[in-house]
Amino acid sequence: MIARPDPVAIGRVVATELKPSTPHQFHFWTANETAIGIGAIVRVDEGTRDKGEGRVVYGVVTDGFAYSDLATPLHDVIGAEGDPARAAASPTVRQEIRYWTAAVLRQIPEEPLQPVPLGQVFVASDTDVAQALRMDAYLHSATPTAIPIGLYTSGGLEAPVYLDADFLLGPEAAHLNISGVSGLATKTSAVEFLLASVFRHFPAHKGKVAAVCFNVKGPDLCFLDQPGDLSDEDRRRYALLDVPATPFERVRYFAPLKADGVNLNTLRTHPDLVDDVTPLTWGLQEVVDYAEVLLNRDDIDAKADAFIDFLRDRVLSKSFDDGFGNAHQVQTFADLDRLFRSIFDGLELSGRSDTWRTHHIATMRKVRNRLSNISTRCKGLVTDDGPSSDLPWGSFEDRAVYVIDVANVDPLGQDLVFARAVSKLREHLERRDLGVDAVVVFVDELNKYAPGDGPETYVKKMLLDISERGRYLGLVLFSAEQFRSQVHRRVVGNAGTQVFGRMDMDELATPGYQVLSPATKIKLATLPVGELMVRHPHFTQPIFVRFPKPPVLRGRDGMGRFPATVDLPFEDAVARHLVHLDRRIRPNQVKDLIADRTEEDVRRALAAVRQKRPEDVLAYFRKILGGRVASDAPRERRAVPPLNPISDEPY
Amino acid sequence: MTWWDALVRAGAVPAAYVPPASMGRTDVDDGAEPGADLVEGDAVQVYPVTPASAPPACFLDGIEQWKVVGYDGVLPVVRAYVAAAVRRRGEDRRLRTAFEAARDFAIAPLAGMTPERRRALTEHCPDVVEISVEEGTQPGRMLELARRAVDSARQALERKLAEQCLASLGATEWLVVDGLLSVSGKLAGHPRALGVIKSHGAQFFTGTDLERALTVPADHRTSVFRARGGHARNEVYSWYLRLWPWEGNDLLYGLLRIEARANAATISGADATCGWLLAERAPIATPDVRWDRLLYPIHDVETYLRARAPRDLLASRASRLPRTGT
Fold this sequence. Notes:
The structure holds two protein chains of two kinds.
Chain A: E1 11-14, E2 25-30, E3 41-45, E4 56-68, H1 73-79, H2 84-88, E5 96-108, E6 120-123, H3 126-132, H4 136-139, E7 146-154, E8 157-164, H5 165-168, E9 176-179, H6 187-201, E10 209-215, H7 232-241, E11 250-255, E12 277-279, H8 284-288, H9 291-294, H10 302-315, E13 319-321, E14 327-329, H11 333-350, E15 355-356, E16 359-360, H12 361-377, E17 400-405, H13 411-431, E18 438-443, H14 446-449, H15 458-473, E19 475-481, H16 489-493, E20 497-500, H17 505-508, H18 518-525, E21 531-535, E22 543-546, H19 555-561, H20 570-581, H21 587-594, H22 599-612, H23 617-631
Parallel strand pairs in A: 9-19, 9-20, 10-17, 10-18, 11-12, 11-17, 18-19
Antiparallel strand pairs in A: 1-2, 1-6, 2-5, 3-4, 3-6, 4-5, 7-8, 13-14, 15-16, 20-21, 21-22
Chain B: H1 3-9, E1 13-17, E2 35-38, E3 46-48, E4 57-72, E5 75-89, E6 95-108, H2 115-124, E7 128-130, H3 139-167, E8 174-178, H4 185-188, E9 193-197, H5 207-214, E10 220-222, E11 225-228, E12 236-242, E13 255-261, H6 264-268, H7 270-279, H8 296-308
Parallel strand pairs in B: 4-8, 6-7, 8-9
Antiparallel strand pairs in B: 1-4, 2-11, 3-10, 4-5, 5-6, 9-13, 11-12, 12-13
């Protein structure tokens, strides 16, 4: 057994009538030269602990004071005869005190709960840190659920701080929210590190875990599979935390296409990386369930809603007779448009009233107008025709990150992507057929997507839904924002773990931070990059931790190393897609093949190839391209003329 | 069980009387009439002094506290506490304790006490100082004797520490003592020992010399003189130094009397010594009411000693009204 030297007391608890010790707070003094600072964890021994008796109290320093025996500042002026230089040159310096206030983290024994004894104060050891933060319960249990979030560093000590997976990823509590000012790479970096930590330490008995990250700005999450520059110090910290200092092994990127339908709408377009990006394109089937996301509140009256329900339940993906002798199999926006035209033509030719199956023609016109506009407004994400390309619902891989890049998608498209992705995750997790048992969803910019005020958007509803019900399903929200006070209260309130990076002083002045001491606020306002304040259900007080730089290439650095390429011409982009699927294909073969085809047909054929992934890519592409072109005459989108002088409805 | 509890159990009447004089310290007067022989000039002169940087120094002070804890009949039994410390000023200008000593003891007229209570006291208190009183001595007089015993114990402690400190004093280091230097032969003969006296009960001059001495302006000193009688048991040189202007305050405001070795070097070095003593005005020793004459390091030693004194000795300084039992 290694003999450890007896710890040296660094302070002593003092209590006066005006500032007594309580069960939750105490005060102590230290020497002027001390390693103690705000956020330091200390241990108080009652003094008889060596005899197996007495109380041990753990506390975290929340405030510090220094003062001398100077009765009034005027006395200093008098002593120096008004000359500040003389004051500094006085032969003796006044007696000073370093006086600290600490909040109790834990008392042993916990009952009866008593005021903190007037004992000696020691710097906490790593064992003390585990005890103080109640980590021992989940760190050393039969089924450990500890997930390191960083290192507690104070007084030369570096002790890992662990979160409880049951409280980070459910089912006890769940969700993590991180706040901090923009531009310091703290929020995104912290989440990247934490995901790496979760993937390394997610308990085996809890099954498989994956992450879905929405990249909502710039290239933030575009290079999670590329190694970043780590210092030796960072690597040492990774070793201490037992987290691999390597980028994520399994990352799948998804990005909508641009309006041209062949170039990807992402900043990860460097030739070395773009092949890993899967286009995200949805058709009518994928979109119609989320029509309310895309239609504003004025659009969705009861009549329109009923008609959309009718389409969804009776028409889509079914054989449907329109009542005018035409059978329809509606699977795409183009099919839907044909149905509408058929109905309107039928009504006009038959001279019947302006009602079709109880739905007024004006309502139908409005719904048609809005739905057909979706593919225009979300061009690149929503296709008029052709197959969709989607996330691998049902076959999610363990420890994989699925990045959905919506940074350059317009707000409507972002809403649609959020709503559908989250809904699908929930559906599959409810059915337990997603492929993993838990999914971490990372959403940045909550100030934009779930503001405390403003309209009730579908995205906000989805985020609230995850926050309030996700933990039962294994659907966990890691969210980030700049101003926590301006995020919907229930979204941040439901986050069991709350993390704070450097904060803006104005933000800290809001009521939500009243529980923090002025010193803690100052520390928060000046936190260096790589340091965080963590609140977790097991910690009775916020704890400051330091985390290493994430093991992945930061967005900004990635753009330097892998700059995005300019959009390719249509033919080149198609050729690149096909060459990516089959390296044997020569670009010229593709260019020759599509030379006399319309872009729409080429896009459709390309999407079919991507979905099918056949053995012989070029042959399949040729087949799809040839077949469709031969069978379909070029279509003209005709406007539907009005039937009768319509009612006064303003549609 | 404390010794005073044992005394009460043996039949003494408990008491909690803190005499007004018990908080401070007094310097023992040997009864001789004080006088002065000028050793610098023929008449008392005043000399301007320029503040100078202070040399390395140690500072010595002592405290005494006592109170009556019981009566055997009308004979008071006193609990006393004396302590002294030397605090050394380091290069960082901070003071740290170099030497300290304390004594917690009883003072009682043992011979006059009943055998039972005397036995209770001597058995339970390892340190009893006996005061000799004649039959019929008034209790007030006995308290005065107790005070002298306390003073004497404190001075002995100070002397002991001072001599310990002198033995370890650095080559350029000074020892500044709060009070008389002349109480110790070793102190009085050391070239870098100074006594700083704040109370001026003993006056060494008369007439014009007295006026010059007591009206010395701020940042000035008087001529050096040999102190005779009064407190002087060992020969020392002395002079007055004014730290702060007295006009508008009091004649003794900011006035110190300095004692140093009786040697010609003391006279030649008086200006330099006064220079660094003037520099000791900052930081000022507030909130002590004697701050105008109290050097901060001495104040610091006193604060240190008071902080370490027993908490229960002077605890009952609140109202002495009878308890109502409600």
